[in-house]
Automatic annotation (TrEMBL):
Keywords: ATP-binding, Nucleotide-binding. The keyword Ion transport does not apply. InterPro entries: AAA+_ATPase, ABC_transporter-like_ATP-bd, ABC_transporter-like_CS, P-loop_NTPase. Residues 12-249 form the ABC transporter domain. One of its GO terms (molecular function) is ATP hydrolysis activity. Pfam families: ABC_tran. PANTHER family: LINEARMYCIN RESISTANCE ATP-BINDING PROTEIN LNRL. It comes from the Bacteria. This is ABC transporter ATP-binding protein. It comes from Streptomyces mobaraensis.
Length: 337
Protein backbone atom coordinates (compact mmCIF):
# COMPACT_ATOMS: atom_id res chain seq x y z
CA UNK A 1 0.00 0.00 0.00
CA UNK A 2 1.21 3.52 -0.66
CA UNK A 3 2.14 5.90 2.14
CA UNK A 4 -0.84 7.57 3.69
CA UNK A 5 -1.36 10.96 5.22
CA UNK A 6 -3.87 10.97 7.99
CA UNK A 7 -6.18 13.94 8.06
CA UNK A 8 -6.44 13.95 11.83
CA UNK A 9 -9.73 15.77 12.04
CA UNK A 10 -11.80 13.39 9.92
CA UNK A 11 -9.73 10.21 10.17
CA UNK A 12 -9.75 9.99 6.36
CA UNK A 13 -6.62 9.16 4.41
CA UNK A 14 -5.42 10.43 1.09
CA UNK A 15 -5.54 6.97 -0.46
CA UNK A 16 -9.05 6.11 0.72
CA UNK A 17 -11.14 4.82 -2.13
CA UNK A 18 -14.35 5.63 -0.26
CA UNK A 19 -15.29 7.79 2.69
CA UNK A 20 -18.76 8.30 4.07
CA UNK A 21 -19.57 10.89 6.70
CA UNK A 22 -22.72 11.08 8.81
CA UNK A 23 -24.93 9.00 6.52
CA UNK A 24 -28.62 9.06 7.40
CA UNK A 25 -31.54 7.18 5.87
CA UNK A 26 -35.05 7.46 7.18
CA UNK A 27 -38.04 5.30 6.37
CA UNK A 28 -40.99 7.34 7.62
CA UNK A 29 -39.92 8.80 10.96
CA UNK A 30 -37.44 6.04 11.65
CA UNK A 31 -33.74 6.58 10.93
CA UNK A 32 -32.56 3.07 10.02
CA UNK A 33 -29.14 4.51 9.23
CA UNK A 34 -28.36 7.17 11.78
CA UNK A 35 -25.06 8.99 11.25
CA UNK A 36 -22.81 6.27 9.86
CA UNK A 37 -19.25 7.31 8.98
CA UNK A 38 -16.71 4.92 7.54
CA UNK A 39 -13.73 4.73 5.22
CA UNK A 40 -12.26 2.11 2.92
CA UNK A 41 -8.55 2.28 2.11
CA UNK A 42 -6.98 1.28 -1.19
CA UNK A 43 -6.41 -2.47 -1.23
CA UNK A 44 -8.25 -2.86 2.05
CA UNK A 45 -10.76 -5.60 2.85
CA UNK A 46 -13.31 -4.05 5.18
CA UNK A 47 -15.66 -6.31 7.14
CA UNK A 48 -19.08 -4.71 7.61
CA UNK A 49 -20.95 -6.49 10.37
CA UNK A 50 -24.20 -6.15 12.21
CA UNK A 51 -27.14 -8.23 13.39
CA UNK A 52 -30.23 -8.62 11.24
CA UNK A 53 -31.91 -5.29 10.66
CA UNK A 54 -28.86 -3.29 11.81
CA UNK A 55 -28.89 -1.16 8.67
CA UNK A 56 -26.09 -2.82 6.66
CA UNK A 57 -27.97 -3.27 3.39
CA UNK A 58 -29.43 0.22 3.59
CA UNK A 59 -25.95 1.66 4.17
CA UNK A 60 -24.52 -0.34 1.26
CA UNK A 61 -27.40 0.75 -0.97
CA UNK A 62 -26.41 4.36 -0.27
CA UNK A 63 -22.68 3.72 -0.70
CA UNK A 64 -23.28 2.13 -4.09
CA UNK A 65 -25.70 4.75 -5.36
CA UNK A 66 -28.83 2.59 -5.26
CA UNK A 67 -30.45 4.71 -2.55
CA UNK A 68 -30.23 8.46 -1.97
CA UNK A 69 -29.10 9.41 1.55
CA UNK A 70 -31.28 11.75 3.61
CA UNK A 71 -28.12 13.16 5.15
CA UNK A 72 -24.36 12.89 5.04
CA UNK A 73 -21.82 12.74 2.25
CA UNK A 74 -20.05 10.02 0.27
CA UNK A 75 -16.77 10.49 -1.54
CA UNK A 76 -15.43 7.95 -4.00
CA UNK A 77 -11.80 8.32 -4.94
CA UNK A 78 -11.82 11.84 -3.54
CA UNK A 79 -14.88 13.09 -5.47
CA UNK A 80 -18.37 13.69 -4.16
CA UNK A 81 -20.70 10.82 -5.14
CA UNK A 82 -23.78 13.00 -5.54
CA UNK A 83 -21.95 15.48 -7.77
CA UNK A 84 -20.67 12.79 -10.15
CA UNK A 85 -22.65 9.58 -9.74
CA UNK A 86 -21.61 8.11 -13.11
CA UNK A 87 -17.92 8.44 -12.33
CA UNK A 88 -18.41 7.04 -8.80
CA UNK A 89 -20.44 4.08 -10.06
CA UNK A 90 -17.77 3.28 -12.65
CA UNK A 91 -15.32 2.76 -9.78
CA UNK A 92 -17.63 0.45 -7.85
CA UNK A 93 -18.67 -3.17 -8.37
CA UNK A 94 -21.66 -4.58 -6.51
CA UNK A 95 -22.40 -8.25 -5.94
CA UNK A 96 -25.93 -8.53 -4.59
CA UNK A 97 -27.13 -11.46 -2.50
CA UNK A 98 -29.65 -12.56 -5.10
CA UNK A 99 -28.44 -14.45 -8.15
CA UNK A 100 -29.25 -12.34 -11.19
CA UNK A 101 -28.39 -14.64 -14.11
CA UNK A 102 -30.07 -16.23 -17.11
CA UNK A 103 -30.14 -19.93 -16.22
CA UNK A 104 -30.48 -21.18 -19.81
CA UNK A 105 -27.36 -19.32 -20.94
CA UNK A 106 -23.77 -20.32 -20.20
CA UNK A 107 -21.58 -18.33 -17.81
CA UNK A 108 -19.75 -16.83 -20.79
CA UNK A 109 -23.02 -15.84 -22.49
CA UNK A 110 -24.28 -14.27 -19.27
CA UNK A 111 -21.08 -12.29 -18.90
CA UNK A 112 -21.20 -11.23 -22.55
CA UNK A 113 -24.66 -9.85 -21.87
CA UNK A 114 -23.46 -7.90 -18.80
CA UNK A 115 -20.33 -6.68 -20.60
CA UNK A 116 -22.62 -5.05 -23.19
CA UNK A 117 -23.33 -2.34 -20.62
CA UNK A 118 -19.72 -1.18 -20.74
CA UNK A 119 -18.11 0.67 -23.61
CA UNK A 120 -15.57 -2.01 -24.51
CA UNK A 121 -14.36 -3.17 -27.92
CA UNK A 122 -15.16 -6.75 -28.88
CA UNK A 123 -11.55 -7.80 -28.14
CA UNK A 124 -11.47 -6.05 -24.76
CA UNK A 125 -14.80 -7.57 -23.86
CA UNK A 126 -13.52 -11.06 -24.55
CA UNK A 127 -10.33 -10.39 -22.60
CA UNK A 128 -12.24 -9.08 -19.59
CA UNK A 129 -14.65 -12.01 -19.60
CA UNK A 130 -11.78 -14.51 -19.75
CA UNK A 131 -10.07 -12.68 -16.94
CA UNK A 132 -13.20 -12.52 -14.74
CA UNK A 133 -13.94 -16.22 -15.31
CA UNK A 134 -10.38 -17.05 -14.37
CA UNK A 135 -10.46 -14.89 -11.22
CA UNK A 136 -13.57 -16.67 -9.93
CA UNK A 137 -12.22 -20.10 -10.91
CA UNK A 138 -14.81 -20.94 -13.58
CA UNK A 139 -12.75 -20.81 -16.78
CA UNK A 140 -13.13 -24.55 -17.37
CA UNK A 141 -16.94 -24.51 -16.97
CA UNK A 142 -17.54 -21.26 -18.87
CA UNK A 143 -19.48 -22.94 -21.69
CA UNK A 144 -21.91 -24.86 -19.43
CA UNK A 145 -25.43 -23.63 -18.81
CA UNK A 146 -25.74 -21.72 -15.53
CA UNK A 147 -28.73 -23.93 -14.65
CA UNK A 148 -26.30 -26.84 -14.28
CA UNK A 149 -24.15 -24.94 -11.73
CA UNK A 150 -24.27 -25.30 -7.96
CA UNK A 151 -25.54 -22.28 -5.99
CA UNK A 152 -21.94 -21.44 -5.12
CA UNK A 153 -20.86 -21.48 -8.76
CA UNK A 154 -23.76 -19.23 -9.70
CA UNK A 155 -22.69 -16.83 -6.96
CA UNK A 156 -19.21 -16.83 -8.51
CA UNK A 157 -20.64 -15.89 -11.93
CA UNK A 158 -22.41 -13.03 -10.13
CA UNK A 159 -19.06 -11.91 -8.76
CA UNK A 160 -17.47 -12.16 -12.22
CA UNK A 161 -20.24 -9.93 -13.60
CA UNK A 162 -19.41 -7.25 -11.04
CA UNK A 163 -15.74 -7.33 -12.06
CA UNK A 164 -16.08 -6.76 -15.80
CA UNK A 165 -15.47 -3.00 -15.57
CA UNK A 166 -12.46 -3.54 -13.25
CA UNK A 167 -13.84 -1.59 -10.30
CA UNK A 168 -11.51 -0.20 -7.65
CA UNK A 169 -13.95 -1.14 -4.90
CA UNK A 170 -16.07 -4.28 -4.74
CA UNK A 171 -19.08 -4.73 -2.45
CA UNK A 172 -19.80 -8.33 -1.53
CA UNK A 173 -23.03 -8.74 0.42
CA UNK A 174 -23.05 -12.07 2.28
CA UNK A 175 -21.32 -13.83 -0.60
CA UNK A 176 -21.02 -17.21 1.08
CA UNK A 177 -24.57 -17.71 2.37
CA UNK A 178 -25.75 -21.14 1.28
CA UNK A 179 -22.72 -21.96 -0.84
CA UNK A 180 -20.74 -25.21 -0.80
CA UNK A 181 -17.30 -25.37 0.85
CA UNK A 182 -15.45 -25.45 -2.47
CA UNK A 183 -17.12 -22.29 -3.75
CA UNK A 184 -16.64 -20.64 -0.37
CA UNK A 185 -12.89 -21.25 -0.54
CA UNK A 186 -12.85 -20.07 -4.13
CA UNK A 187 -14.63 -16.84 -3.14
CA UNK A 188 -11.99 -16.27 -0.46
CA UNK A 189 -9.23 -16.85 -2.99
CA UNK A 190 -10.91 -14.47 -5.41
CA UNK A 191 -11.09 -11.70 -2.83
CA UNK A 192 -7.45 -12.14 -1.82
CA UNK A 193 -6.29 -12.29 -5.43
CA UNK A 194 -8.19 -9.13 -6.37
CA UNK A 195 -6.47 -7.32 -3.56
CA UNK A 196 -3.00 -8.78 -4.17
CA UNK A 197 -2.92 -8.41 -7.96
CA UNK A 198 -5.00 -5.31 -8.54
CA UNK A 199 -5.00 -3.48 -5.21
CA UNK A 200 -8.79 -3.74 -5.28
CA UNK A 201 -10.65 -2.76 -2.12
CA UNK A 202 -13.50 -4.90 -0.84
CA UNK A 203 -16.40 -4.26 1.52
CA UNK A 204 -17.47 -7.64 2.80
CA UNK A 205 -20.62 -8.29 4.81
CA UNK A 206 -21.05 -11.62 6.51
CA UNK A 207 -22.67 -13.35 9.46
CA UNK A 208 -19.77 -15.78 9.67
CA UNK A 209 -17.20 -14.44 12.09
CA UNK A 210 -14.39 -16.87 11.16
CA UNK A 211 -14.61 -15.58 7.58
CA UNK A 212 -14.30 -12.02 8.73
CA UNK A 213 -11.43 -12.92 11.06
CA UNK A 214 -9.64 -14.65 8.23
CA UNK A 215 -10.22 -12.10 5.46
CA UNK A 216 -10.72 -8.61 6.76
CA UNK A 217 -8.06 -6.00 7.51
CA UNK A 218 -10.48 -3.79 9.37
CA UNK A 219 -13.98 -4.22 10.70
CA UNK A 220 -16.93 -1.90 11.23
CA UNK A 221 -19.72 -3.13 13.50
CA UNK A 222 -23.13 -1.47 13.23
CA UNK A 223 -26.40 -1.86 15.06
CA UNK A 224 -29.57 0.26 15.15
CA UNK A 225 -28.13 2.29 12.29
CA UNK A 226 -25.04 3.43 14.19
CA UNK A 227 -21.39 2.41 14.16
CA UNK A 228 -20.65 0.66 17.47
CA UNK A 229 -17.00 -0.15 16.88
CA UNK A 230 -14.39 0.16 14.18
CA UNK A 231 -10.80 -1.00 13.91
CA UNK A 232 -8.47 -3.85 13.12
CA UNK A 233 -9.25 -7.13 14.81
CA UNK A 234 -6.42 -6.55 17.23
CA UNK A 235 -7.66 -3.08 18.14
CA UNK A 236 -11.19 -4.33 18.62
CA UNK A 237 -10.23 -7.33 20.74
CA UNK A 238 -7.62 -5.63 22.93
CA UNK A 239 -10.18 -4.25 25.45
CA UNK A 240 -11.51 -7.78 25.95
CA UNK A 241 -8.40 -8.77 27.90
CA UNK A 242 -6.33 -11.95 27.65
CA UNK A 243 -9.22 -14.32 27.58
CA UNK A 244 -12.58 -15.24 28.95
CA UNK A 245 -13.06 -17.58 31.90
CA UNK A 246 -16.55 -18.83 32.58
CA UNK A 247 -17.38 -20.74 35.72
CA UNK A 248 -20.79 -22.36 36.08
CA UNK A 249 -20.89 -24.28 39.37
CA UNK A 250 -23.81 -26.65 39.93
CA UNK A 251 -26.55 -25.53 42.34
CA UNK A 252 -25.27 -28.13 44.79
CA UNK A 253 -21.72 -26.77 44.59
CA UNK A 254 -22.92 -23.20 45.01
CA UNK A 255 -24.82 -24.22 48.13
CA UNK A 256 -21.55 -25.29 49.72
CA UNK A 257 -19.94 -21.87 49.30
CA UNK A 258 -20.18 -19.47 52.24
CA UNK A 259 -21.92 -16.72 50.25
CA UNK A 260 -22.86 -18.50 47.02
CA UNK A 261 -22.10 -16.74 43.76
CA UNK A 262 -21.36 -13.35 45.41
CA UNK A 263 -18.58 -15.00 47.40
CA UNK A 264 -17.10 -16.49 44.25
CA UNK A 265 -17.40 -13.15 42.47
CA UNK A 266 -15.59 -11.39 45.33
CA UNK A 267 -12.71 -13.86 45.14
CA UNK A 268 -11.97 -12.69 41.61
CA UNK A 269 -12.12 -8.98 42.36
CA UNK A 270 -9.25 -7.30 40.52
CA UNK A 271 -8.84 -10.13 38.01
CA UNK A 272 -10.70 -8.35 35.22
CA UNK A 273 -14.18 -7.33 34.22
CA UNK A 274 -16.62 -9.61 36.05
CA UNK A 275 -20.27 -10.32 35.37
CA UNK A 276 -22.79 -12.93 36.42
CA UNK A 277 -25.26 -14.13 33.83
CA UNK A 278 -28.05 -16.66 33.82
CA UNK A 279 -27.19 -19.81 31.91
CA UNK A 280 -29.68 -21.71 29.80
CA UNK A 281 -30.73 -24.12 32.58
CA UNK A 282 -31.55 -21.37 35.10
CA UNK A 283 -28.26 -21.57 37.03
CA UNK A 284 -25.70 -18.76 37.06
CA UNK A 285 -22.45 -18.34 35.19
CA UNK A 286 -19.59 -16.20 36.41
CA UNK A 287 -17.78 -14.56 33.46
CA UNK A 288 -14.40 -12.89 33.84
CA UNK A 289 -12.58 -10.99 31.11
CA UNK A 290 -9.22 -11.95 32.46
CA UNK A 291 -6.28 -9.54 32.64
CA UNK A 292 -3.66 -12.08 33.68
CA UNK A 293 -4.65 -15.65 32.89
CA UNK A 294 -1.95 -17.49 34.92
CA UNK A 295 -2.86 -15.47 38.05
CA UNK A 296 -6.57 -16.19 37.56
CA UNK A 297 -5.95 -19.89 37.04
CA UNK A 298 -3.93 -19.97 40.28
CA UNK A 299 -6.90 -18.37 42.05
CA UNK A 300 -9.21 -20.98 40.52
CA UNK A 301 -7.07 -23.82 41.79
CA UNK A 302 -6.84 -22.28 45.29
CA UNK A 303 -10.63 -21.90 45.42
CA UNK A 304 -11.12 -25.46 44.20
CA UNK A 305 -8.66 -26.81 46.78
CA UNK A 306 -10.22 -24.77 49.58
CA UNK A 307 -13.88 -25.48 48.87
CA UNK A 308 -13.90 -28.79 47.04
CA UNK A 309 -15.61 -27.09 44.08
CA UNK A 310 -15.30 -29.18 40.93
CA UNK A 311 -13.67 -27.75 37.82
CA UNK A 312 -16.16 -29.34 35.41
CA UNK A 313 -18.11 -26.09 35.04
CA UNK A 314 -15.11 -24.09 33.84
CA UNK A 315 -14.69 -22.96 30.27
CA UNK A 316 -11.83 -20.93 28.87
CA UNK A 317 -12.04 -18.94 25.67
CA UNK A 318 -9.86 -16.53 23.80
CA UNK A 319 -11.41 -13.18 22.98
CA UNK A 320 -12.89 -13.28 19.50
CA UNK A 321 -15.19 -11.26 17.32
CA UNK A 322 -18.15 -13.37 18.35
CA UNK A 323 -17.69 -12.39 22.01
CA UNK A 324 -17.04 -8.76 21.09
CA UNK A 325 -20.18 -8.70 19.01
CA UNK A 326 -22.20 -10.18 21.87
CA UNK A 327 -20.75 -7.55 24.23
CA UNK A 328 -21.58 -4.68 21.90
CA UNK A 329 -24.99 -5.67 20.63
CA UNK A 330 -26.25 -8.08 23.29
CA UNK A 331 -26.95 -10.50 20.45
CA UNK A 332 -25.21 -13.35 18.71
CA UNK A 333 -24.44 -12.27 15.16
CA UNK A 334 -26.29 -15.27 13.77
CA UNK A 335 -29.45 -14.74 15.83
CA UNK A 336 -32.28 -15.22 13.42
CA UNK A 337 -29.89 -15.33 10.47
N1 LIG B 1 -37.74 0.17 2.10
C1 LIG B 1 -37.88 0.09 3.42
N2 LIG B 1 -38.95 0.61 4.05
C2 LIG B 1 -39.09 0.56 5.40
N3 LIG B 1 -38.19 -0.03 6.22
C3 LIG B 1 -37.12 -0.58 5.67
C4 LIG B 1 -36.88 -0.54 4.25
N4 LIG B 1 -35.71 -1.17 3.98
C5 LIG B 1 -35.23 -1.57 5.18
N5 LIG B 1 -36.06 -1.21 6.19
C6 LIG B 1 -35.86 -1.46 7.63
O1 LIG B 1 -34.63 -0.86 7.99
C7 LIG B 1 -33.95 -1.64 8.95
C8 LIG B 1 -32.56 -1.94 8.44
O2 LIG B 1 -32.65 -2.83 7.33
P1 LIG B 1 -31.38 -3.36 6.55
O3 LIG B 1 -31.89 -4.29 5.48
O4 LIG B 1 -30.54 -2.22 6.14
O5 LIG B 1 -30.64 -4.20 7.68
P2 LIG B 1 -29.47 -5.27 7.54
O6 LIG B 1 -28.47 -4.92 8.59
O7 LIG B 1 -28.98 -5.32 6.13
O8 LIG B 1 -30.18 -6.63 7.91
P3 LIG B 1 -29.93 -8.13 7.32
O9 LIG B 1 -28.68 -8.63 7.94
O10 LIG B 1 -31.14 -8.85 7.84
O11 LIG B 1 -29.89 -8.04 5.82
C9 LIG B 1 -34.78 -2.89 9.17
O12 LIG B 1 -35.54 -2.71 10.34
C10 LIG B 1 -35.67 -2.93 7.94
O13 LIG B 1 -36.89 -3.53 8.26
Amino acid sequence: MTATTTAARTGTRTDDVLTATGLVKKFGDRAVVDGVSLRVGTGEILGFLGPNGAGKSTTIAMLTGALKPDGGTIQVDGADFAAGPMRAKALIGVVPQEIALYPTLSARQNLTFFAGAYKLSRGERRERIDWALDVVGLADRAGDKVASYSGGMQRRVNIAAALLHMPRLLFLDEPTVGVDAQSRNQIFETVLRLRAEFGMSVVYTSHYMPEVEQLCDRIVIVDHGKVLAEGTQEELLRPLGEGLLEWAPTAEELGKLPGGMSWLEARFAGHGQISVAASGDGSSVLRIRVNDMPATLREVSEIAAGTGLGLGGIRLGRPDLESLFLDLTGRQIRDGA
